[in-house]
Amino acid sequence: MSKNLIERLIQYLGIPQNTEEFQWTKTRAYRRRLGTVKNAWIIGGLIMLAVAQPAFILAGSFFLTFLSFAFLEK
């Protein structure tokens, strides 16, 4: 079977896959949250393009990054 790049990297680095944190990334709830974060980044990116102010883009990027980490955490 062909493994994708991420799976090969995880195997190469020897990251244990039986931990609770790793198993969380395989659940349906995590996949739904990942889709929500993706949509938030798309909408946020479009807003940043519309405003086109460097300070707004930087602040928006930091804010969306924070929300992404917070929302994807278990």
List keywords for this structure.
single chain, 74 residues, mainly alpha, 4 helices, elongated
Task: Please explain how this structure is put together.
The structure is a single chain. This protein is mainly α. It contains four helices and no strands. Helix 3 (28-51) runs antiparallel to helix 4 (54-72).
Strand content: under 5%
The tally of beta strands, per DSSP, is 0
Low-confidence stretches: none
Percent range of helical residues:
over 70%
What is the structural class?
mainly alpha
> Tally the helices: what do you get?
4
Distance between the termini: 30 Å
Sheet bearing the most strands, described? none
Give the secondary structure arrangement, pairings included.
Elements: H1 5-13, H2 20-24, H3 28-51, H4 54-72
Précis, in short:
The chain has 74 residues and is mainly alpha-helical. 77% of the residues lie in helices and 0% in strands.
